[in-house]
Write a structure and sequence with these properties.
CATH superfamily of the largest domain: Outer membrane efflux proteins (OEP)
Largest sheet: 4 strands, antiparallel
Strand order of the largest sheet: 1-2-3-4
Shape: elongated
Structural class: alpha+beta
Helix content: 55-70%
Number of helices: 11
Number of domains: 2
Length: 447
């Protein structure tokens, strides 16, 4: 296709819009801004930071625990004897008693603690995948919001152009009716088309405002202008151009699958940990106790005492009311749920991969078909206008051709933006979507 026609084909996206603002920002700039402004991504980062504490928490169950306890109290004791007690003397005494102890416990065999530590590793690994998925989700949300605004702007421009064209046809129809070269039917038809176009323009402007507010939700502002698709844009097929290859890659490396696989591993460890409730525990224990007491009753002397010991402490669970068995059954049920969730995740990413792959491949074909349709539609408008001048075409023919051209331009713009989103969705389904892919799409925009 010649360069002149190529320039015409992009009229529905670039040339049908107003002049490019000098302060227009591109897709990559919006994404960088969203990384610091989007609340959903900020919440994901905070959740990731919180998950990093799972590792030290799990490791703490394998390390020594040291506790310190102290006490001091004032005692007021009144002692009275019943009956005759030789040599015993009743009376009241007041004295202080103080003490403290330091105890250190080192787990030697606690299977549940060890499994908890191993679980923490999987939890941290899963959290990393969740954060990566949140970043990919941010890329897709930014791209969707960006191209939604561009499409909405394009639709406003097309609706305005359509209303202007129909207004011209309405004025012409009225003039022709006044001079007797057209019927009132032609004027009424042109009036109906013009009124409908005015309604569509209002709807398009409303939709544009909604799309801008959707972008505000991500970056907390509405940019004054966005860079548009340039005239050098050329869609390309996926690499590799094989659906099964993308499906296979998605079921292996998709972040959604990785997260679900981690849940399966964690659930299996939870089963082992619950069964560990039947096992004995063995700890090494060391303690130092220091206490003192003031003089007591009957002139008794006070005392100071300190005790030190080190030893082993064994605990064997015998019966806990069925608690352990119940927890094992619960863990087994959760493990089965995790397995089913993993299978569903694999099927879902496979479906997403196929859908995005078809969106890219069919998008290329659709864009090329609409390029040809744009040329044909423009020729139809020109021919209808010329035919109307020589009397072989009617006012309705011109209106229909104009409406078809506007509709084709709208479909062409929508096909290009849908293609761009599907390119990113295909990478996301495969688990490889990154900033570089967004930069690749960003190259299609006017600088």
């Amino acid at each position: 296709m010649q360069a002149g026609n190529r320039f015409l084909l992009l009229l529905g996206i670039a040339l049908c819009s107003a002049a490019q603002p000098a302060a227009a920002v591109d897709l990559l700039s919006i994404y960088r801004e969203a990384q610091g402004a989007d609340t959903v991504y900020a919440a994901a980062r905070a959740a990731y930071q919180a998950s990093q504490e799972k590792m030290p928490q799990g490791r703490s169950g394998l390390l020594p625990a040291v506790t310190f306890a102290g006490n001091t109290q004032y005692n007021d004791r009144d002692l009275q004897f019943r009956g005759a007690v030789p040599g015993a003397a009743a009376g009241t005494s007041r004295y202080n008693s103080n003490g403290f102890n330091v105890t250190a416990t080192q787990p030697l065999f606690r299977m549940q603690n060890w499994i908890t530590y191993e679980q923490s590793k999987n939890l941290v690994s899963q959290a990393e995948a969740v954060l990566l998925q949140a970043n990919q989700d941010l890329i897709l949300r930014v791209a969707q919001a960006y191209f939604d605004v561009l499409l909405a702007e394009n639709n406003v421009t097309l609706a305005t152009a359509q209303k202007t064209a129909f207004a011209e046809q309405l004025a012409q129809a009225k003039r022709n009716f006044e001079v007797g070269t057209a019927t009132i039917t032609d004027a009424n038809d042109a009036q109906a088309r013009h009124d409908l176009a005015a309604s569509q323009e209002i709807a398009a402007q409303n939709d544009l405002e909604i799309k801008k507010q959707a972008m505000r939700l991500i970056i907390s502002r509405v940019p004054p202008g966005l860079a548009k698709i340039n005239t050098r844009f050329a869609p390309a097929l996926p690499n590799p151009n094989n659906m099964d290859s993308w499906v296979d890659q998605s079921t292996l490396s998709s972040l959604q699958v990785r997260i679900s696989q981690a849940n399966v591993d964690i659930a299996a460890q939870e089963v082992a940990k619950s069964r560990g409730g039947h096992l004995p525990t063995l700890d090494a224990v060391a303690s130092y106790v220091d206490s003192n007491q003031g003089a007591g009753v009957q002139g008794g002397a006070g005392f100071d005492s300190n005790t030190k010991f080190i030893g082993l402490q064994l605990a064997v669970p015998l019966y806990q009311g069925g608690l352990v068995n119940s927890r094992v059954r619960e863990a087994l049920a959760n493990q089965e749920k995790a397995r089913q969730d993993l299978e569903n995740a694999k099927r879902t990413v496979a479906l997403n991969s196929r859908s995005a792959f078809l969106g890219v491949t069919n998008g290329v074909a659709q864009i090329k078909a609409l390029e040809a349709a744009l040329v044909s539609s423009q020729s139809s408008v020109d021919s209808s206008k010329l035919g109307q001048e020589v009397g072989v075409r009617t006012q309705v023919d011109v209106l229909n051709a104009t409406q078809q051209l506007i509709s084709t331009r709208r479909d062409y713009a929508q096909a290009i933006y849908a293609y761009a989103i599907n390119v990113l969705k295909l990478k996301a389904a495969a688990g490889t979507l990154s900033d570089n892919d967004l930069a690749y799409v960003n190259q299609w925009l006017e600088k």
